[in-house]
Amino acid sequence: MKRFFAGLFFIFYASMMSAQVDSIKTDFSAYIKSTQSLLKKYPESTLIDIYKYFFQSRFGPEHLISDSLIAFKILQDELKSDEIKSYKLKSDSLLVELLQPEKKYVRIDLSLVKDRIIPLNLFFTAFLQSAEKHDTVDLENWKSDWSGIVSSFEEANLKIKNFREDKIKIENALRMNRLVFSHSQDYKKKYNPHYRVIDYKIFEKFLLPYLKQFRIKFKQYE
After folding, report:
1. What's the number of domains the chain is made of?
2. Mean pLDDT of 117-145
3. Does pTM top 0.90 for this prediction?
4. 67 in a domain, yes or no?
């Protein structure tokens, strides 16, 4: 009898665990929808750029900051670049972008800092607080999810630049635990990206009020 009830308990426990796993399965359709929106905004995006976007959407700033002084100096030097034009030359939708589908982080164009819409020190503090150590388990789950995302792209027959070549390149990198990529040369040449990734809650509380002062509209949902 004890074995019988033990067996029932095991079946019940296994079914509960299975239900929990099913409930947290990745919604790949959300990634397809987000990619379609991304390609409308940035049609020159390659699969590398899409990977970068989704990695940032889940984990935020890609590089751990081991030395805040060096990171601050890099930001200061980047802000001196003539490549960063006035924020007035960009649409509001390109100045602050809520990264889909996770909606946990935003990309903030550095023109907002260069033009002193957002104070430099406050911006950098927000960036530091957004850069946290990534959990190893989460990173392993990401590798599996990326495989599913790519498969969903193929099933949906999405037209993405450099798909086959980048697919292999990313797969090889993930096998060696290299999870971070730079933007493709096509993307850099076309869109000249200069931004930092900030936690959405930090942005909403500390940085968004400055945008509102200058009547810069932030679109929370796309």
Report:
1. 1
2. 91
3. no
4. yes
